């Protein structure tokens, strides 16, 4: 009797084990292909050139949500936290912020309400240049030379306005950075100079008081980025490097540049490298240790170059529709191929490029779509309808699938 009972129990256990293994095998074979799917908490935001519509896209499933901004054709900039996007309307003296509804908490992402506009706004004159560090958003107002700043903790306070920092600057097409020590580097103009401005960079504190004066007169400053301790500005003759303690030096342009100036400067966080770009020459590493420019890709047919979200790779979109992906750790070309039709250099509304670890995203104004291109296989393209004329595109949110 005991023997028969033992056999029965053993048989039951064997059947249960087999069923469990079969289920595990079945589940394994039907896991979603995560390598070919965007992270759950990545979001896109587009602005339309002809209407007030902005569109948030969840690329993991292609769903979209439409909202109305105050005006059409906002310039879009994601905050450093990844949660918000700033909308700048330069000629209309307005800054708004859009909340993705997502918040990163170390190893997971929380849903913080629904996607919506924040309550805060900025009303500086001609807000043009945007930067963000930590939980602070910073705007340079070209119309009066002031800075407007705001902390994310105040974004949903009813009636909140961005704080103004007046450092006594003249109105100009300016730029700024925020350093780790809390001070700001800001461009200045020199009324005595006969050259095109801005003419230098000085350091101010949060009250606008000067901490370190400009010591390297130059001209045509445009484009800047910082690693927190050093800032690099594109300038006449090369790259102006400013440390957070006020030291300044110029890294000379490569031979043959002539009067060409690097007008776009990027900092790749993951690679810990500065990159300079000019459509008249190409794309270069700006090495602030060796004090030199090193070519990444030289061409006069570049339409756009963008870092991926983490700052590991550089993506370059050419006028002929070719996409190139460079590993910023080595500077080597990883992949290239045709991804969109050719665009003429004179086209007013050109495609707009952004990227995550897994995908390139290209807003196509003429088609009303965003094209999602799998970086592992350029032939895999998903077309997402967003609005009639998407002219601006940014990536919000987080490269994570982990929720609370």
Secondary structure topology:
Elements: H1 2-29, E1 42-48, E2 53-58, E3 63-68, E4 75-78, E5 84-89, E6 94-99, E7 102-105, E8 108-111, E9 116-117, E10 127-133, E11 136-141, E12 146-151, E13 163-165, E14 176-178, E15 184-188, E16 200-204, E17 210-212, E18 224-226, E19 230-235, E20 238-243, E21 248-252, E22 264-268, E23 273-278, E24 282-287, E25 292-298, E26 302-307, E27 313-318, E28 322-327, E29 332-338, E30 352-355, E31 359-364, E32 369-374, E33 381-385, E34 390-397
Antiparallel strand pairs: 1-2, 1-34, 2-3, 4-5, 5-6, 6-9, 7-8, 10-11, 11-12, 12-13, 14-15, 15-16, 16-17, 18-19, 19-20, 20-21, 22-23, 23-24, 24-25, 26-27, 27-28, 28-29, 30-31, 31-32, 32-33
InterPro entries: Quino_amine_DH_bsu (IPR011044)
Largest sheet: 4 strands, antiparallel
Low-confidence runs = 1-31
Basic shape = globular
Beta-strand percent range:
35-45%
Oligomer: single chain
- The assigned structural class equals mainly beta
The whole-number mean of residue pLDDT values reads 93
| Amino- and carboxy-terminal Cα gap | 52 Å
The number of E-state strands comes to 34
State the strand order across the main sheet: 3-2-1-34
Tell me the radius of gyration.
25 Å
Helix content: under 10%
Helices, by number, come to 1
């Amino acid at each position: 009797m005991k023997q028969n009972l033992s056999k029965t129990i053993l048989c039951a256990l064997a059947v249960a084990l087999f069923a469990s293994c079969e289920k595990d095998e079945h589940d394994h074979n039907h896991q979603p292909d995560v390598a070919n799917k965007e992270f759950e908490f990545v979001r896109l935001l587009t602005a339309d050139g002809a209407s007030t519509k902005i569109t948030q896209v969840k690329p993991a499933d292609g769903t979209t949500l439409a909202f109305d901004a105050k005006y059409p054709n906002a310039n879009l900039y994601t905050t450093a936290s990844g949660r918000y996007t700033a909308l700048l309307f330069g000629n209309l003296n307005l800054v708004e912020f859009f909340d993705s509804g997502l918040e990163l908490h170390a190893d997971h992402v929380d849903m913080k309400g629904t996607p919506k506009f924040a309550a805060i706004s900025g009303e500086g004159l001609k807000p043009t240049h945007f930067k963000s560090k930590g939980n602070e958003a910073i705007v340079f107002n070209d119309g009066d030379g002031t800075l407007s700043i705001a902390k994310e903790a105040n974004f949903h306070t009813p009636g909140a306005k961005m704080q103004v920092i007046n450092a006594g600057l003249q109105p100009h097409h300016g730029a700024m950075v925020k350093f780790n020590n809390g001070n700001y580097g800001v461009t200045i103009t020199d009324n005595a100079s006969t050259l095109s401005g801005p003419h230098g960079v000085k350091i101010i504190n949060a009250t606008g008081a000067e901490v370190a004066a400009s010591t390297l007169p130059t001209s045509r400053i445009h484009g800047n980025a910082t690693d927190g301790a050093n800032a690099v500005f594109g300038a006449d003759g090369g790259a102006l490097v400013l440390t957070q303690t006020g030291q300044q030096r110029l890294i000379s342009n490569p031979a043959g540049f002539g009067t060409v100036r690097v007008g776009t400067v990027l900092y790749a966080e993951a690679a810990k490298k500065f990159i300079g770009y000019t459509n008249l020459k190409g794309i270069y590493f700006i090495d602030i240790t060796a004090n030199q420019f090193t070519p990444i890709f030289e061409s006069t047919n570049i339409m756009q170059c963008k870092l991926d979200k983490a700052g590991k790779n550089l993506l370059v979109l050419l006028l002929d529709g070719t996409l190139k992906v460079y590993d910023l750790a080595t500077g080597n070309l990883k992949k290239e191929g045709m991804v969109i039709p050719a665009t003429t250099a004179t086209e007013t509304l050109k495609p707009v490029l952004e990227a995550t670890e897994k995908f390139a995203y290209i807003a196509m104004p003429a088609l009303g779509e965003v094209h999602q291109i799998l970086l592992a296989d350029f032939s895999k393209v998903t077309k997402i309808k967003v609005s009639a004329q998407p002219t601006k595109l940014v990536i919000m949110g987080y490269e994570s699938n982990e929720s609370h």
